[in-house]
Amino acid sequence: MKNTTEKYNTAFEAKKFDAKGLDAGCSSVAWTTEDGKHIWARNFDFNRIAEGSLVTFIPREKDYYICGTTTEGTAKPKNLTKTKYASIGIGSIALGSTPVLYDGMNEMGLMGGQQNYREFAFFPEKEKRGTKRLQPPFVVTHVLSQCATVEEATALLENEVTIVAEPMLGTVPTLHWVFSDRSGETIVVESDIDGLHIYRNTVGVMTNSPGYSWHKLNLLNYAGIRDLDHDTYTIDGNTINQAFSGSGAFGMPGDWTSPSRFVRLAFLKEYCTKGKTEEEGITYLMRIMTNAAFPLGMVRVSDPGHITEKEKDIVPFDYTIYTSAMCAESLKFYWISYENQRIQCVDMNMLLDAKDYMQFPLKREIDFAYLTEKDSI
Fold first, then answer.
1. Mean pLDDT over each residue of the chain, to the nearest integer
2. How far apart are CA 336 and CA 320, in angstroms?
3. Which candidate, 69, 239, 255, 279, has a CA 20 to 30 Å from the CA of 31?
4. What is the per-residue pLDDT for 302?
5. What are the Cα distances from residue 162, in Å, to 18, 98, 168, 169, 182?
6. Partners of 112 in the β-ladder
7. Residue 268's closest CA among 104, 126, 254?
8. Cβ(23)–Cβ(48) below 8 Å
9. Does 147 participate in catalysis according to the annotation?
10. Which pLDDT score is estimated for 301?
């Protein structure tokens, strides 16, 4: 059995495909409110988003392919299936045959999304005997369309499909995935040189490379972080009183690397106020996610990677294009964008009888609320 370092070095050497594009950065957190609501949120960090990316509703009993697209002429009848559950998330239907969801939830309260796993993701060329081929960009769509819980998602990914190195639009994206449900359990799904790994009962936080087990172990380096300020300090007979707040978090990393974001979000999840209701929980969690958000202009892209024909408006910086959040119990899907911090929402309950796709704009335009004399008190 390889140790962690050897495993990751082998993964570097084993690349057999250009795994750029469709592989945004991102951070995610599972959250629980005081009244028992389960929420999952993620930041979508990249220097672009595919043209036609909108809040997308997928109805029940809708045909789709789990591998191949009609746009590229690679779809085969044996890969055709039908949605069992309706779902909603941010994604695109530009490929025609199958919607690509970057994140979302279904009517049973299963939530989740894809995140970048650059340099460590590895997918086999051939499927395991007795399983079907599943293309990486379709994992979120397929799991939400077929599974009611993380238990069912685990069984599907372990026994019914193989996530394979099947290119889409000229690339195989480097992805790993997170799913959470009404039980409060969050799983992380990673396919690397050692095969498929599904981590159960995680801390509910995930960012990007390296893998989840590395991030969890890395938390030991920050075991002294707490929510309580350090008290008055005496050194060589001199007493130094507190002069500022926040000293309990000395050592917490503040950069935008994946390890630093994981550490910050893990401790913020542990200590921050959860909110008494769903509305408070969503509001507070959106604020938490800003602690891991990429400011536009701070993270310059050294390698733009493979740019597909569906990607426009590319900037030279990775930044948090949007933050989405969703509630497993209410089935409400929320989001903000970098430009528009007003929380917007679609209630999936209102869409469940729809027979076809429905899409809603992200409304990324800057939105100020101007008060006048009539608003005075």
1. 92
2. 10
3. 255
4. 77
5. 20, 18, 16, 20, 26
6. 104, 179
7. 254
8. no
9. no
10. 87
Contact 33, 327 (CB under 8 A): no
**Residue of 26, 67, 147, 327 with catalytic role:** 26
Domain range holding 156?
A: 4-209+278-375
Tell me whether residue 254 is in a domain: no
Residue 152: give its domain's CATH number.
3.60.60.10
Structure tokens at 3: 């140790």
d(CA 315, CA 85): 36
Residue 191 parent element (H or E): strand 186-192
Beta carbons within 10 angstroms of residue 202's beta carbon: 18
What's the pLDDT score for residue 20?
40
pLDDT band for position 239 (cuts 50, 70, 90): very high
Examine the pLDDT at 285 and tell me if it is beyond 60: yes
Q: How many domains does the chain have?
A: 1
For residue 92, what are the β-bridge partners? 100
The per-residue b/e assignment along 234-246, b for 16 or more CB within 10 angstroms, e otherwise, is: eeeeeeeeeeeee
Token pair 């993380």: residue: 150
Tokens describing residue 369: 């609320």
